[in-house]
């Protein structure tokens, strides 16, 4: 197995969670590291005041000191989109040391950094609240108990391909008939075994439409807690916050189901988001003319959803969101 480099910030957060009462194994599951590592970082902090003991340097002498490299890592945690020349200029201004872009590039490579597509996250997101929520969910529930629901909109532009091929120096162009398509909303529920149920409607989904779907289609497919498919998890948008929906879910069956909200700004912990991306890819690749098949678009979208989202993919998305160990 190839060891991956784990940032100091993540190690410190892991230890901080254990100090407020979370079990090291639960913290390890949340952050995707081993329980032994979490315990070792805690011992290092107690004995040496840092989560990782500094090891002696080997090989050629570094141009940048350990302190500067650590400060560069702190800088990139807050500003990951900086260019190499901007980092070099920051080092010159902060430490009075002139370094080349090549030196910055080599140093970051040695630290395990690479260029990646930026993932946008909300500044309002509270990582401690998220960690506590995930620890609570993992300690109370099995993956097969969790059902995730959300809605997504589609129109004829959803299936337009975004990339094409052309000779060097020429643009990739395609002639399209531009028209304003009818917008459809897809309202599925995802379990660890795939799509539990799905409804497609014209227009958007409001609170009453969501309530009707939960009552008439979703709850009949769920089970009383603590059985499989007995915990419904949704984001905290206004559509989902109806007391009527909560009362209906908690009254379902003889014992009722549980109704839980994701922490704010946490779409990465809703595996159904990856199901929506998979559906969009399926429509672009295999059904670009889904509105013009001669069949009801609602039926076409429902069938596409059931085809694109397989049990194997669902389990992968649950694992990627941290609810299932492969």
Description:
The chain is of the alpha/beta class. It has helices at 8-19, 24-31, 35-48, 66-78, 84-95, 101-110, 127-140, 207-218, 243-251, 272-286, 297-308, 311-320; strands spanning 146-149, 152-154, 184-191, 194-202, 231-234, 258-261. Strands 1, 2, 3, 4, 5 and 6 form a six-stranded mixed β-sheet that branches. Helix 1 (8-19) crosses helix 3 (35-48) and helix 2 crosses helix 3 (35-48). The longest helix is centred in the last third of the chain and has 15 residues, at 272-286.
Classify the beta-strand content into a percent band. 5-15%
Strand and helix order: HHHHHHHEEEEHEHEHHH
Overall pLDDT confidence: 82
Main β-sheet: number of strands, strand sense, barrel status?
Answer: 6 strands, mixed
* Distance linking N and C termini: 16 Å
Give me the secondary-structure category: alpha/beta
Strand element count: 6
Radius of gyration: 24 Å
Give the count of helical stretches.
12
The percent of residues in helical segments reads 40-55%
Domain Winged helix-turn helix: 84-136
Protein name: Transposase
Organism: Trametes cubensis
InterPro entries: Homeodomain-like_sf, RNaseH_sf, Tc1-like_DDE_dom, Transpos_IS630-like, Winged_HTH_dom
Question: How does the SSE layout of this entry go?
Answer:
Blueprint: H1 8-19, H2 24-31, H3 35-48, H4 66-78, H5 84-95, H6 101-110, H7 127-140, E1 146-149, E2 152-154, E3 184-191, E4 194-202, H8 207-218, E5 231-234, H9 243-251, E6 258-261, H10 272-286, H11 297-308, H12 311-320
Parallel strand pairs: 1-5, 5-6
Antiparallel strand pairs: 1-3, 2-3, 3-4
Helix pairs in contact: 1-2, 1-3, 2-3, 2-7, 5-6, 8-9
Domain Winged helix-turn helix: 84-136
Domain Tc1-like transposase DDE: 145-285
InterPro entries: Homeodomain-like_sf, RNaseH_sf, Tc1-like_DDE_dom, Transpos_IS630-like, Winged_HTH_dom
């Amino acid at each position: 197995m190839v060891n991956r480099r784990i940032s100091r910030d993540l190690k410190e957060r892991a230890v901080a969670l254990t100090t407020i009462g979370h079990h090291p194994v639960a913290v390890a599951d949340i952050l995707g590291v081993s329980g032994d590592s979490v315990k070792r970082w805690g011992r290092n902090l107690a004995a040496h005041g840092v989560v990782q003991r500094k090891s002696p340097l080997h090989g050629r002498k570094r141009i940048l000191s350990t302190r500067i490299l650590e400060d560069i890592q702190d800088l990139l945690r807050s500003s990951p989109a900086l260019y190499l020349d901007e980092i070099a200029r920051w080092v010159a201004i902060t430490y009075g040391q002139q370094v080349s872009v090549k030196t910055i590039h080599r140093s970051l490579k040695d630290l395990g950094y690479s260029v990646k597509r930026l993932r946008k996250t909300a500044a309002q997101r509270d990582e401690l609240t998220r960690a506590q929520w995930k620890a609570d969910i993992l300690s109370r529930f099995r993956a097969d108990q969790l059902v995730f629901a959300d809605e997504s909109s589609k129109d004829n532009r959803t299936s337009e391909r975004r990339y094409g091929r052309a000779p060097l120096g020429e643009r990739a162009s395609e002639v399209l008939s531009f028209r304003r398509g009818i917008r459809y909303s897809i309202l599925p529920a995802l379990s660890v075994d795939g799509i539990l149920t799905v409804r497609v409607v014209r227009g958007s989904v409001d609170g009453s439409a969501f309530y009707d779907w939960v009552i008439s289609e979703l709850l009949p497919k769920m089970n009383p807690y603590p059985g499989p498919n007995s915990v419904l998890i949704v984001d905290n948008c206004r559509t989902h916050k109806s007391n009527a929906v909560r009362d209906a879910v908690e009254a379902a069956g003889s014992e009722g189901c549980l109704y839980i909200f994701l922490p704010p700004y946490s779409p990465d912990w809703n595996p159904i988001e990856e199901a929506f991306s998979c559906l969009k890819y399926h429509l672009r690749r295999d059904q670009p003319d889904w509105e013009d098949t001669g069949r009801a678009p609602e039926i076409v979208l429902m069938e596409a959803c059931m085809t694109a989202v397989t049990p194997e993919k669902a389990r992968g998305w649950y694992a990627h969101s941290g609810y299932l160990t492969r």
